[in-house]
Amino acid sequence: MYNEIKTSFLAKIENVMLARTIGVGFLMGLDLQLNFINEVKTVISEAVTNAIVHGCLSNENKFVQMNLSYDAVNIYIEVIDNGIGIEDVEKAKEPLFSTKVEEERAGLGFTIMDVFTDRLDVESKVNEGTRVLMVKKYSE
Ligand SMILES: Nc1ncnc2c1ncn2[C@@H]1O[C@H](COP(=O)(O)OP(=O)(O)OP(=O)(O)O)[C@@H](O)[C@H]1O
Ligand SMILES: [Mg+2]
Question: How far apart are CA 10 and CA 18, in angstroms?
């Protein structure tokens, strides 16, 4: 059992909603509980918002990629931007750390992604971009 989609959309904040909807549509065939789907929507929102707001600095000419797949056990959510990158990934992942406190960001996005998934990998290079991979188990 395997399915996969690759999507690419402009770094516009309204596309966060699109990304969530794509996620829900992609997982439709899996017969998941509503609270599980809500967790997936939440982590997609957090990762895609970060890619747009922090990675691409809301530069609407840049593209964000979101690739989704599942096998018999796990769902895989990959969000990639070719933006500014993260200097210190470990620090960025700490709860309440944010470089945009003046914009009233809580600094909880990575914490939420971590809590609602079984694996969170963040790879980043300054001036090259960031790739976030989340793995969430849906079946035994
Ligand atoms: N794709 C990205 N590109 C560049 N920097 C990023 C990216 N994602 C996260 N960061 C950096 O990591 C920090 C922490 O991200 P996190 O999502 O945890 O908090 P936040 O986005 O600042 O606040 P919140 O998600 O609660 O609104 C960000 O403030 C930003 O500096
Ligand atoms: Mg965030």
Answer: 11
Q: What pairing do the DSSP bridges indicate for beta strands 74-81 and 119-125?
A: unpaired
Q: What is the CA radius of gyration of the chain?
A: 14
Q: Distance between CA atoms of 119 and 18, rounded to whole angstroms? A: 24
CA–CA distance, 85 with 121 (Å, rounded to integer): 14
Residue 38 alpha carbon to ligand 2 centre in Å: 17
Domain ranges for the chain: 3-137
Catalytic residue among 15, 46, 82, 131: 46
Determine the residue of 46, 49, 50 to mutate for testing ligand 1's pocket, defined as the one with the most ligand atoms within 8 A of the Cβ atom.
Answer: 50
Give the closest residue to 6 by CA, choosing from 48, 69, 67: 67
Return the CATH number of the domain spanning residue range 3-137: 3.30.565.10
Q: Which tens digit of pLDDT belongs to each residue from 69-125?
A: 999 999 999 999 999 999 999 999 999 999 998 888 999 999 999 999 999 999 999
